[in-house]
Amino acid sequence: LLYLLRGGGNPRTVLTEKPTEATGASRRGFLIGSGAVAAAAVVLGGSGQLIIRARNKISDLVLPKAAKPLPPIATGLETKYSGISTFVTPREKFYRVDTNLTVPVVDVAGWSLSIDGDVDNKLSLSFEDLTKMNVVEHDITLTCVSNEVGGSLVGSARWLGVPLQDVLDKAGVGSEADQILSTAVDGFTISTPLEVATDGRNAILAFAMNGEPLPREHGFPVRLIVPGLYGYVGATKWLERLTLTTYAAQDAYWTKRKWAVDAPIKLSSRVDTPRPLSTIQPGKTAIGGVAWAQPDGVAKVEVRLDGGEWQQAELGPDAGTEYWRQWYLPWDATSGRHQIAVRATNTSGEVQVTERATPFPDGSSGVQEVVVLVA
Fold first, then answer.
1. How far apart are alpha carbons 159 and 223 in whole angstroms?
2. How many whole angstroms from its chain centre is CA 28?
3. How far does Cα 261 stand from its chain's mean position?
4. CA distance 252 to 217
5. What whole-number distance in Å separates Cα of residue 268 and Cα of residue 368?
6. pLDDT band at 133, cuts 50/70/90?
7. Sheet holding 96-97, edge to edge
8. pTM value?
9. pLDDT tens-digit readout, 50-108
10. Interatomic CA distance for residues 132 and 146, integer angstroms
């Protein structure tokens, strides 16, 4: 099922997973109201979409290989501890956040990427041009600014593409620009701080995800990915144009709506298992989840049971500082009601803050605490 929410102040979200009881009721009114619109869209546009999709099969696209391929990604903790998020998020389960009621369908043969604005050389690069450049792959976690503490709007994948820096160097960035204004094929804009996008992190123009071409829902044929920034300032899908400009001259879609200009992803952690308000059997089990700390990386994760002392959890495999870490803590669960809290520390020694903040205007913060019943 597709769930559309967060109109108005927050980015509209499309989720491909069943909502919890807590979220289902709040969305129900929107779903009923939008049902007629969705039905009309299917009647009016469905056949045309099918014809276009048939003519532009993504599966026919042959991907280049990275010049220096990464080793196979490690086996995650989910194989040992049921309930922990998979180390690699499957494409079909990766969260989706955008303003589109229908997914843009782009013919890769006619697509091009323009680089203009404050540059020495204006460029127009075809998909083939990009694939002939230095192709790289990186393991990167993406997060939406709308994600609440403990929320599901975060995912991790292996991305294949071209370094953003290489494309900018090819154009030659001028001396006045302080932002990259990226534009999607539907006119949607995102502004990315130039300094952050070119500071050495693995910012790329990605055309593949987990070994396959980008799905249309995730930006085919090319999307921008800047690790460490929330998606609304660093992850433009269906990318068509990069304009080197200034914040004084141009605002992007969400910054016009007073979301923060510079939005680094906040150090966060999440309990995946046991599920909040679930009932489990007494005995030996595991508390587990994921944590992320871009660009520094996760150094440790700690768990607190029933308000006691913080206990250090075991970390799962390491795929780099721009990727999340799985974690677990063995637990001999006793009957009764228990409260579980989790916090992460990054490699710079920064500890996840306890102060609660809502997603607006620059991302949520706070320590997640869940209640579990042991029968």
1. 10
2. 25
3. 18
4. 21
5. 9
6. very high
7. 3-5, 13-15, 96-97
8. 0.85
9. 333 434 588 789 999 999 999 999 999 999 999 999 999 999 999 999 888 899 999 99
10. 36
